[in-house]
# Entry
Amino acid sequence: MSTDAPTRAEVCVVAVAECFRGDGERLCNPIGTIPMIGGRLARETFEPALVMTDGFATFTTTTLPPGTDPYHSEGGRLRIACEVEAWNPYPQMFTVLWNGRRHVMMGASQIDRYGNQNIACIGDWHRPKAQLLGFRGAPGNTINHTTSYWVPNHSPRTFVERVDVVCGVGYDRAAALGPIAARFHEIRRVVSNLGVFDFETPDHRMRVRSVHPGVTIDEIVAATGFELVVPDEVPQTRLPTDAELHLIRHVIDPAGLRAGEVRE
Amino acid sequence: MPSVPDKRMTEDEVVAELRDGMTIGIGGWGSRRKPMSLVRAILRSPLRDLTIVSYGGPDLGLLCAAGKVRRAVYGFVSLDTIPLEPHVRAARQDGTVEAMELDEGMLLLGLMAAAWRVPFLPTRAGLGSDLPAVMPELRTVTSPYPGPDGGPGEELVAVPALTLDVALIHLNRADRAGNGQFLGPDLYMDDWMALAAERTYLSCERVVATAELAEAGPFHTQRISRLHVTGVVEAPHGAHFTECSPDYGRDEAFQRHYAATAASPEAWEAFRDRFLAGDERSYQRAVDTWREERG
# Structure
């Protein structure tokens, strides 16, 4: 089987999938196109027990391409074109997340060195320069269960010295709360279009975990608005296997939506 | 068999029951199953200074654009296929609306607290975030029980009860007494909205005999009881342009047209004059004409 070389977007998909390695029977809840493809890839390969949603109101075993709406009306009745494991409407989703068996991957309009995340607005919250999503579920997610982030546009405007509003709680805020209040807090990874980052440092400052093929450390440092922890040896983000590329290209994202989120 | 009460009324009769300054909860989620015909009736009324509690979509956007809102309480405001509600963005950026922006789950807890008539419900959500900093009205509470390590009780966020004067919800079916049925994938928080309110007005696609509800779907879908409903409005296409699955999907073309009206005051005024000046029937006719013109 001859396979075209992996694209940057496909490297990102695999880096996302790796975030969910070891999660076992947990709700894998990636938000966004590449996160969704990455989560599905993890379940199709090394993490088969993951539970995933249809993007709406059910948990489904079906590998739905991103952006699929499985619901339709047939003679006035609701039908769903996927295999349903459980009904999980929004009120139930909050119960699941407060209960903790979930790993979410959210976006971040801004993120800082301790993993504090902002999706609410740019500027002063009381009179924002730009209103964005609002707090959404970020405060509840980050204090209740494992969270990772996906940032497709790594720049000094997204990786910032200080976020304008803390929506998702970072490690410095969690430390200030103390070990009891923060006992369910874990920011596992940040995946960007340039590399993979974690917080596995003594004071939980963000560290370069790997650099995507074709990207240099200098580029990452220049695109980051704070001082990253850069180990002496930084590995390259692993490439997709041929089997993974096949799944990404022909099963999970045949329409190629991943290319719309990350440019080459 | 006892006959159930008949609570049918019109949109305008519902709005005649509302007052300036009221706190009104609106059901649905984003741009899904919103009681839009009731929202449109508010738009053509003189009501003002409202506090709107909503998992927000074009309901909140329209009410902000029309200057009806003093305070908005929400977890997010989105049109789903258009991630940010443009009129609410403008209201926030222009400072014309006071905001209480909660974590999505906290909003549910606030409705639950109101429904159960307790002053607050505790949660871990909000700890460590800027929510308490930007909204000092959010208080914390210390657990009277020992912590998980046997030490002092945990400090948690106390989400205040979000007691509503009125809730407005839109369901697929209801009977004349206000027993409501959802036939789509999700009830959203409509049951909690109804329970958190002094009075709930329920609009629906069709009013049917109580016995017919069981034919439309399993009885598990009959999730709203007349116990908590004051009035029933039959409003076919009343959720337009939001989704009302499985009766109809979102009118994406019209939603884009609506969203574009945030670009300028002139665009908004033209939209308002064309679609919102008359009653619900004239709105539906204007939408039909708009659709025909587009071909």
